[in-house]
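Thought: the user wants the 3D structure for the chain below. I'll pass the sequence to the structure tool as-is, report back what it returns, then summarize two notable features.
Action: structure_tool
Action Input:
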Amino acid sequence: MAISLTSAAASADEDILRWRMNSLLYPKLFGEAGSYFAAEVERRTGGSFLIEVQDRMVLDQDSFGALEAGLIDAVWGSAGHHHREDPALAIFSGFPFGPDPEGFTAWMREGGGAEALDAIYARHALKSFYCGVLPAEGGGWFRAPVETVADLDGLPMRAFGYGALTLRALGVVPYELPAADIRPALETGLVAAAEFSLPSIDADLGLHEAAGHLYLPGWQQPATSLELLMPRRRWTALSYDHRSAIEAACVTTLTWSLETAQPQQVAALERFRNEGVMIHDWPEEILARLREAWAEVIAEETVRDPLLAAAWESYLSHVESRGAASAQGYID
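Observation:
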C-alpha cells in the first residue's frame, strides 16, 4: 500500500507543468503583476501549471540567451528591456507623446500592435503576450528648475530608451543607470536630473529626497506595457488548456494593472506635495521642442528597420481610425 501511494504521488507530480519565469521588473507593481499572473495561471489550471517567479535572476541583456538555452522558460518584463538585442522592440514599452494606458491597450489588442510586435519577435523565434499596462511615468526629477530649452543644454540626466534619444536632441547628456544607482548619482552630482518610473516607485527609491523638482507630464512614456515572453517552441508544446490559461490570465492581469496602479500614483503625488516637493508643468516651449525632436527620432529609426516602420505605421493608422491619441501623460 505504501508503495502504491508513493507511486500515485509521483505520478501526480509528473502531471504538473513547472516553469521558471524571470522577472526583469522592479518588484513593486511591475513584479507584483508577474506574481498575480502566475497565481492566475495556477488557479485556472487547478494547479497543473505552476510558474515560479524569479526576481531578476537573469539580466535584461541575457534574457534571449537564457531562453534559448532553457535556463528559464519565460520572461516577465516589457519589450523595451530587449532594445540591445533588437532596437525595434523599444516602441512597445511605450513611447514619447504616445497614448495613455487605455489607448495603448486598444492599439495592442485591436489596432494591430500585437501583430506588429509578433513579427519583430518572430525573427528571434520568440513569442510574447500583452499582459498588463501601467500609467504615465513622472516627467523627470531635477535638482534645479527648468524654465527654457537652454536649461537642458549639457544637462547630465539619467534617461532611458526613446526618451533619452529625444532629450539628447535638445542637448541633454543621458546616462542609463540602474535603479539602485540613481539616487546616489543625484546626491553626488554625477547627474543633475533623472527620469525612472512611476511616482510611487520613484518614491520608494527616494528620488524626491535627492532632487526637489518634479515635472509633469511624463511625456517620454505615458504608458508602460507588461508582457510575457517565451520561446515559440515553448508555446507550441503547451496543451490547449495551458495555452488558454495563459491567455485568460493575461486578460485578468491587464485589468488588475489598470485598476491597481493609478490610485497609487495619486497618493504618491500627494505625498510629494506634503513633503515639500515642487511639482511643475513642463513649459509649453520645451514640450513643443521635445515633440519636434521625437518626430525626428522616430523618422530616423523607422528608416533603419522595415518592421519598426510597419509597427509605427500600424500605430498611426490606429490613431487616425480612432481620432486623436490621448498623449498627455498626466497622472494626477
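Final Answer: Structure generated. The chain has two domains: 16-135+222-263, 141-221+276-304. Residues 62 and 304 are 24 Å apart (CA to CA).
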